[in-house]
Structure formats: structure tokens, C-alpha cells
Specification:
six-stranded mixed beta sheet; globular; 274 residues; alpha+beta; disordered N terminus
Length: 274
Amino acid sequence: MSATLDVRGCDMFVPLVDLDSTESASAIVGALQTSGFLLLKSPLLPPTLLQRALAASKEVLLSPDAAKYGVQEHTATPPQLPDPKRYALRNYKELPTLTPAAAPTSGEVLTELYDAMEEVKLQLLTAMAVGLNLNDPSCFIKLHQEKNNTLRLLHYLPVSETQGNRCKEHSDYGSVTLLLTDGSPGLEAFNDKANRWVPVPHVEGAVVVNIGSLMSAWTKGSLRATLHRVAGPASQASDTEPEELRQACAMPRFSVAFFADLDPGVELRQVGRE
């Protein structure tokens, strides 16, 4: 069975891969070496779980502020802006959050999603090592023993037709990212050969997978940490249909991102085949 499935309507720059396929390791590495992105299906992430998790994230994000912050006891950062000379390297977007007490059912669903994505992460890390022909298939897993993951709930507000990117171009800094989207157009990956931004397609029952800068460094650049963004109506060099972007940006956008990071104290070094 081919690991690359039917992707009618999808740009093959971002292929669809079945994690359960016997050919998944080579298909995953092939995609991550060319574009740094793929769409992934796995029995561990059934469509019903993905649908419930997306609904749960909306419930949390759309709940009143008083409910969302009702369990807050301490702030992660002081209320004043820090001295940039001392704190410029701190990454505030990855600070931990708490599930609001007003949505306990949503918390249970999101915990279920987190646990499933942790298992998928381990399978992905193994597939990467196998696909790269590394001698130790568990070499990447050994760097991820402490479940140093972040599950982020993302809510993009509607924007005007003159708005540029809803999320600025960037690459993720960690190991691997799994992203659940609501199907709204706008997520784009940079195709450096064409110097264009390519739409990352949405396939029901699949999650988006992309590589972070640390994984790229570990593999000597073999796996690519690709720039990506959420485009707006006025974004430049976009291959997304302008009317699709205008309609999408008139509505809120929801997604759930699972960021996998290495264990604290792990040395950044390149992984070879020895």
C-alpha cells in the first residue's frame, strides 16, 4: 500500500501520508526533506476525536474572560514590559496555560487529544529515524523522554480586506509540530524554488505536520524547517485564491497546535549514521 494517499484538490507540495502504511517512514522523510510539511492520518487520531477537540477548543476560547482566567493564581510574567537587554531571548508565546474550570468537559477532550498526539509524536520520531537510515531507530525518542510538549489553542479574529498576514511568516523552533485546523484557507508554506507561498490543504481526518529548527539542525538540514504563515487578503506572493482569503478572513479561524520540544538539558548536536 502506498503511503501517499489520494489528495484530490491538494497541491502535492504537501502530500497526505498514512502513518500506518508499511511505506510511511520513507514517505514521511521524503515529504519533510522536500517541503518540510505533510498531512498525516493515523488511527490514533480518528476524525471524531479531531472534531471533538476542535469544538472543545472553540468552547474554551469563546468562553468569557472571567471564566478563562478564573483559575489563575499567578502570572507567568510581570505586568510591566521587561528590559529587552535582559529578556530579549525569552519566548513568551510558549508560556503554559491552564484549562478553565468553566469547561471541564473540554479539558477532558483536549487531554485526550494531547495524549493521542504524544503517541503519534513518538511514532513520527521513529519513522524519521528509520526513513533517514539511522542505525538507532529510537535515537530521536531518546531526546524526548519528558513529554516536553505544548498544546496551544489558537483563535484568529476576523480582519479587514487590507490586512496582511494574520500570523507572520516563521519557522517553529522545536522538534515537530502537529496542527489541527478548522479548514479555513490561509495556512501557507513557503516554496523557495518558486518563491511563492503554497496553500497547505485541509483534509478531513488529517493533521498538518511540520519540522522545527532543532530537528532540522539534528539532521544536518536533511529535514527542512520551512517558513509558514497564515495569510490575509493583502498578503504578498500567495497562491491561495484571493476570494478564498477574503471570505476566510471575514470569519474567525480556530486551530490547535501540538509543539514537541526536546528534553531540558539535551545537547544540540547533529545526528549521523554511525
